[in-house]
């Protein structure tokens, strides 16, 4: 197999892993104001992703590093042309990470509301902008002969791209709400299932329109087959949620996102960044990739370390597989000066 094509597939694999894993993190964060009736509910929700959110986020770092090493021309064009959008994603991820670490440092309600708001924005903004970015990559952007992006930020906010952003927003939101129902118990679990039913129905409609629009402009048999499988998995997830089978619902939702991302890469192949006004300026797998020597070294490194990463991540999820309930949340206490003391178990 051509090493450049192999690494196109590996880059796709890293982004599939990122969107599936960090996708439900985003969904949990966005669902805080919809499911968190009190601070204990919100702490339960945050604790469902507390042990894994930072591990999930490393997938985009590895994916970006693989993109940089395997396809430097693609990396350069993408990160220079989409600089502002990617900067907003980075700032949102930083704000979200800081909020996870600092919201519990003081018992003050205003302090917690401030960081909860940062978690919501820091989850919703990347969930939307990643969809906008990938939709633009598939659709094609204005590139000159040097493969530099010549458009503006507003050119990226076209109808197709905004629909792509809304699709990822709804898919990640539903993915996160299903995860809450899978990882919690009691009233919070039931409310999460009801919310997933409503958001899942909206996601089915929006995703169908987006995949249909993509098929009209970038049709290929492979893309069509993957898009149909993604649609079937999404409907299956919605039905499983209705029946209260959270594990199956979450699994089908993960399959939906994975198949949707793979279908977009299939629609893109063999290009990596099409040029919409002048196809001659399109970046392809062939003209954007590194040398065979570089790709060979990277392939050996990936063959050694990628299985170890997968085993470690799987082990982490196994260790933290149990449900989180309100009884697991320690009660905060304060001293006479109003300073937080060591929490005691409820």
TrEMBL record:
Keywords: Cell membrane, Electron transport, Heme, Iron, Membrane, Metal-binding, Transmembrane, Transmembrane helix, Transport. It is found in: Cell membrane. The chain crosses the membrane at residues 6-32, 74-94, 114-139, 159-183, 195-216, 222-240, 247-269, 297-320. InterPro entries: Cyt-d_oxidase_su2. The keyword Zinc-finger does not apply. Pfam families: Cyt_bd_oxida_II. It is a multi-pass membrane protein. It comes from the Bacteria. Its main location: membrane. The keyword Mitochondrion does not apply. PANTHER family: CYTOCHROME BD-I UBIQUINOL OXIDASE SUBUNIT 2 (PTHR43141:SF5), CYTOCHROME BD2 SUBUNIT II (PTHR43141). Belongs to the cytochrome ubiquinol oxidase subunit 2 family. This is Cytochrome d ubiquinol oxidase subunit II. It comes from Leifsonia virtsii. The lineage of its organism: Bacteria, Bacillati, Actinomycetota, Actinomycetes, Micrococcales.
